[in-house]
Amino acid sequence: MAERLAIEGGTPVRNEPLPPPYPGALVMGEEEKRAVLEVIEQRSPFRYYGPNVLNKVARFERSLEQYLGVNHALGVSSGTAALKVALVAMGVGPGDEVIVPAYTFIACVSAVVAARAVPVFVEVDDSLNIDVDDLKARMSPWTKAIMAVHLQGVACDMDGILAVAERDGVGVLEDCAQSFGAVYKGRKVGTLGRMGVFSLQINKLITAGEGGCVVTDDRDLFLRAVRCHDHGNLREFQGGAPLLGENYRMSELAGAVAVVQLEKLAGILARMERAKEEILKATASIDRLMFRRVPEGAEDLGTSVIFFTHCAQTAREFVRALNGENIGSSQMYDGTVYDAYPQVLNMSTATPEGCPFTCPHYHGDVRYHPGMCPTTESLAERLVYIPIAPTFEDREIADVVSGVRKVAAAVV
Ligand SMILES: Cc1ncc(COP(=O)(O)O)c(C=O)c1O
Asked: Would the pTM of this model clear 0.85, i.e. be above it?
């Protein structure tokens, strides 16, 4: 007989919640403190000038270039800023469509609109990343770029995506916000498409509270990104055509933290990967739980354990019961796709004119409605997501396993 669940009066698997899903923040310590203090002591929080600039952002950029094996990295103020800067650098603008996975963080959609282009949703498959067959069908004469989001530590099927992009002559922008350090066929994500972006927000693998970066091998795109993020300035660089930019610069305080956090990334990943392996080994055989698929050539960083149940109600009950056991879990984005966002369905922009949807340059006819990506909707509502923290010890790993087993026995 199934053990009595905590939500039904039974004894919970744990007496206290698991560590929260803030990997980089959980391992913050003296090193970050020293790095930030240095900047403050020099009274030089701005990267380009000041009493004694320590070049923290520049150091982060050079370390990131080395870590990823990419020619150029640019620190910016957030992952969303990185997306916008990269899209604009790639020449995306009014009249264009950008393909975005139907299951992702809303920033992917908003950044396309901020670049004044129209987002077009594509289905994800059971890897939770872009379904390449559906991608082929969603390409249009107006498609300018494909945003390949590597969700939760697992790379997309990049061979498939790049083949479609090449066939149609469009650029691929990799969104690596949730997958810092993930690998596809021996190469780090962010280096496979035309440009890549990362986020340093608190939920991410490494964090500076806020922050982001743009990477590329292409010098022209890099120079455009530099101009876009710094009022059109190039500072120490030369080349490319002038343009009116904005301000998405990274501060030296964020840069100081980012340098240290990047040094900690390998350790964070090693701990999370071990936890994930142990949890999967002990739960993979549970009947009727379908674990997220990892595409061929991709590896799983171990940021979370994700599986699907056979129906939406079971997934909801699973999450509720797991939380009762003090095994923090959710349905990620509440188990919903774009149809949860009225602003998407109604194409509500910040201004009543409705650019980019009403832009005279735009000749496509995109409309959004529930049911537009049925496979994604079905996956999202049946999904159970358990974040892993780098501070998991044997006790936490064992508790997650016990929790999943206990709840599965009762609700699946
Ligand atoms: C996939 C994805 N893209 C972009 C972002 C935006 O990053 P930020 O919060 O740093 O703006 C996030 C997360 O916040 C994300 O998860």
From this structure: yes
